[in-house]
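Input C-alpha cells:
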C-alpha cells in the first residue's frame, strides 16, 4: 500500500507543479483511480491463483477454507507414516518365505498335538468305560480267564501225549 500512496503523491505532484502540462488535476485523479483499480484487480487475480494452486496441492480442502494448522498437519503426517510402516511390515512378512514356512510348521504341529490330545482323551474314556463294565460284571472277565486257562491246559496235555 505504501507503493500505491507514493505513486499517488507522485502523480499529484506532477499534476500540480505543471511539469506534465497535458494532464489536468481531474485527469490525474482519474488515472490514479484507474491505477488503483488495476492494482486491486491484479492483487485479486494473484490471490485467486494462489488459492487455486493451494487447492490443487490439497484437493480435499474446501474452497475459501483456511489452510490447516501446522500441528494438525504434523499429526496427519505421523498417522500416515504409521500406516505406511504397517503396510511395509505386512509386505515384508509376505515376502519372508522362511518365516511363512516356520509359521506353517508351527500351525501343523499345533494341529497334530491337538489331535493327539483328543485321541488320548477318547482312549482314556474308553478304558474307563471298559473298566467300569468289568467292575459291574466280574463274572465275564473271570469266565474269560478261566476259559483261556482251560485251553492252555488242554494244549499242554495234547502235547505230552503226542511226544
Amino acid at each position: 500500500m505504501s507503493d500505491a500512496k507514493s505513486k499517488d503523491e507522485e502523480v499529484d505532484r506532477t499534476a500540480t507543479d505543471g511539469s506534465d502540462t497535458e494532464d489536468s488535476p481531474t485527469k490525474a485523479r482519474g488515472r490514479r483511480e484507474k491505477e488503483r483499480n488495476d492494482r486491486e484487480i491484479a492483487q485479486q487475480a494473484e490471490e485467486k491463483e494462489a488459492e487455486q494452486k493451494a487447492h490443487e496441492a490439497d484437493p480435499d480442502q474446501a474452497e475459501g477454507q483456511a489452510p490447516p494448522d501446522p500441528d494438525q498437519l504434523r499429526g496427519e503426517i505421523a498417522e500416515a507414516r504409521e500406516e505406511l510402516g504397517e503396510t511395509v511390515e505386512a509386505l515384508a512378512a509376505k515376502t519372508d518365505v522362511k518365516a511363512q514356512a516356520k509359521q506353517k510348521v508351527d500351525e501343523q504341529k499345533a494341529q497334530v498335538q491337538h489331535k493327539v490330545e483328543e485321541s488320548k482323551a477318547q482312549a482314556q474314556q474308553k478304558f474307563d468305560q471298559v473298566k467300569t463294565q468289568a467292575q459291574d460284571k466280574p463274572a465275564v472277565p473271570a469266565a474269560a480267564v478261566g476259559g483261556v486257562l482251560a485251553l492252555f491246559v488242554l494244549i499242554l496235555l495234547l502235547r505230552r501225549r503226542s511226544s
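The two ends are 139 Å apart (CA to CA). The chain has five helices and no strands.
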